[in-house]
Write a structure and sequence with these properties.
52% of the residues lie in helices and 17% in strands. By secondary structure, it is an alpha/beta fold. It folds into three domains: 144 residues, 3-Layer(aba) Sandwich (Rossmann fold), CATH 3.40.50.2300; 177 residues, 2-Layer Sandwich (Alpha-Beta Plaits), CATH 3.30.70.270; 48 residues, no CATH class. The termini are far apart.
């Protein structure tokens, strides 16, 4: 009993342009509920944004600046679950049945008249606040369960907490082995406009489509998590910056070609991608690595979107092609060879030979096993400088 007595009273937001109506309602609920009062719908909406302790809304319909209908629309359209799920009771006066029906369709939970008695009002408030508290407790339980699980039940991707845990392990391993780990932040361009034009339902379909694309495009060792309604993170262990940039450009081009149809209207989508790397960027933690990628995605979005941004600014295909021709990862070549991807590797053989040439020269000079060094030197652009040329990569 003492614990219940120490619990704070549930708070009711009363929104009505009549000071007398607000005062009469406060008199009826004082001692059983905390309360906050506002004189119009706009002020009531601002109160909801800044005050997370509000459990229920009592609102009039006819008010200046923003009426009760507008307030209801904002509440039910909010992306914040604590606001979206709030019980709303409409204070009705002389409105006809059509006004009540409109309020009900917009999401009103109940109606009271301005002359309601204390017992009836308190009973309705008790019922709806208990419902709200149960929903909040359920949501908190779901969030706690999601934090313990590696998989987000909504997106089917990794949870953010699991991605951070896995990322710290991979970062520590990369540092021990002098390897690399790359991060990418993928953001859907103009998401707010998409919501305003087509609604939350269509915007969520677009998000789910991108989620499925990412899940199928990445490697098994990569980790993908959804950080926000329009934002995804990818962690790629053992992946150099240039490889991340190449993947990001392929994804960007794929999304450019994607067209979704909704009610005979074609919806085109683009993404902006921020890229960071543990070896080229000054980071200490995975959070730092992801944070840099977020900043770069934001700068790309501010520049107009539909681009890939790295540490040196916008990444273009020419940059990636030039570096891929200059460097090759022997580890990656061997891994692909073990997978039987010989046909795909044929085009890279000249670069592989040029990369391995210093090692082959050393082997031949020490073992004299007949490696045709002179024939292989033609693949090395620095061959004219003799056997002291540096390996590329």
């Amino acid at each position: 009993m003492s614990d219940e007595a120490n619990q704070p009273l549930p708070k009711v937001l009363i929104v009505d342009d009549s000071r007398m109506v607000r005062a009469s309602l406060i008199k009826l609920i004082r001692g059983r509920f905390e309360f906050r009062e506002e004189a119009d719908g706009e002020a009531g909406w601002q109160a909801l944004l800044v005050d997370p302790t509000i459990h229920l809304v009592l609102t009039d319909i006819g008010m200046p600046q923003l009426d009760g209908y507008g307030l209801l629309e904002r509440i039910r359209g909010s992306r914040l679950s604590r606001i979206h799920e709030l019980p709303v009771i409409v204070i009705s006066g002389d409105e006809d049945d059509s006004a009540r029906e409109r309020a009900r369709q917009l999401g009103a939970n109940d109606f009271i008249t301005k002359g309601i008695g204390a017992a009836e009002l308190l009973a309705r408030l008790d019922s709806l606040t208990r419902l709200a508290q149960t929903r909040r407790a359920l949501e908190e339980s779901r969030e706690a369960l999601a934090k313990q699980s590696p998989v987000d039940p909504v997106s089917g991707l990794a949870t953010e907490s699991y991605m951070n845990w896995r990322g710290e392990q991979e970062l520590a391993l990369a540092r021990r082995r002098q390897g690399d780990i790359g991060a990418m932040i993928v953001e859907i361009d103009r998401y707010e406009q998409l919501v305003d034009r087509h609604g939350d339902h269509v915007a969520q379909l677009v998000t789910r489509k991108l989620s499925r694309i990412l899940a199928t495009k990445v490697r098994k060792e990569d980790t993908v998590a959804q950080l926000g309604s329009a934002q995804f993170a990818i962690l790629s262990p053992s992946t150099e910056l240039i490889a991340c940039c190449a993947f990001a450009l392929r994804l960007q081009k794929a999304m450019e070609k994607l067209v979704m149809t909704y009610r005979d209207e074609r919806i085109r989508i683009s993404v902006t991608i921020g890229v960071s790397s543990s070896t080229t960027d000054p980071v200490k933690t995975v959070s730092d690595l992801i944070g840099l990628a977020v900043q770069r995605a934001r700068s790309g979005r501010d520049a107009g979107g539909n681009r890939v941004i790295g540490g040196g600014g916008e990444v273009r295909q020419e940059f990636v092609d030039r570096h891929l021709k200059q460097t090759v990862s022997i580890d990656q070549v061997l891994a692909r060879l073990r997978l039987g991807e010989t046909a795909e590797l044929r085009g890279q053989l000249p670069v592989v030979v040029a990369t391995l040439l210093p090692l082959l020269e050393l082997v031949e000079s020490q073992l004299r096993c007949g490696i045709p060094i002179d024939a292989l030197r033609k693949f090395d652009p620095d061959a004219g400088r003799g056997s002291g040329s540096a390996a590329k990569g």
